[in-house]
Design brief:
Blueprint: E1 20-22, E2 28-30, H1 39-65, H2 69-99, H3 101-113
Antiparallel strand pairs: 1-2
Helix pairs in contact: 1-2, 2-3
Length: about 110
C-alpha cells in the first residue's frame, strides 16, 4: 500500500509524477527511468559496448586456442554472453538516437571536438 501524499490538494505546485511512488521518508521513488540519455550516459554506453566487444573477441580467440572441449565450450558461452550484451547495448543506443536525432547529432559533434 502506498503512503498518502501529504501535499495532495495543496496549492504549492508540487505534483507527483505518474511513474513515481513515495517511500517512507517522503522521498519520491522513480519506478521507471526517464527517457533521457545524457552525454555522460552516451559515453558510458559507448565504453560498455567497447568492453563487451573486447571481451567477446578475447573469449573467441581463447576458445579457438583451447584444447580442452569443456573449457572451449565455456569460453564460447562467455563469448555469446558478451555478444548478447553488446547487441542489447547497441540496440539501446541506436533506439535512443532514432528517437532523439537532434541530441544524437549534438553528441556526435561534441565527440568530434574532444
Amino acid at each position: 500500500m502506498q503512503p498518502q501524499n501529504p501535499f495532495q490538494g495543496q496549492a504549492n505546485g508540487w505534483q507527483q509524477q505518474p511513474n513515481m511512488q513515495q517511500q517512507a521518508g517522503g522521498q519520491p521513488i522513480m519506478q521507471q527511468p526517464p527517457n533521457v540519455l545524457t552525454t555522460k550516459d552516451h559515453h558510458y554506453l559507448n565504453d560498455m559496448i567497447s568492453w563487451n566487444l573486447d571481451a567477446l573477441k578475447k573469449a573467441h580467440f581463447f576458445a579457438e586456442q583451447c584444447q580442452d572441449p569443456e573449457i572451449r565450450q565455456t569460453l564460447q558461452a562467455v563469448g555469446q554472453l558478451h555478444q548478447r550484451h553488446y547487441g542489447i547495448l547497441l540496440n539501446h543506443l541506436q533506439h535512443h538516437q532514432q528517437q532523439n536525432p537532434q541530441q544524437a547529432a549534438q553528441q556526435s559533434q561534441q565527440n568530434l571536438n574532444m
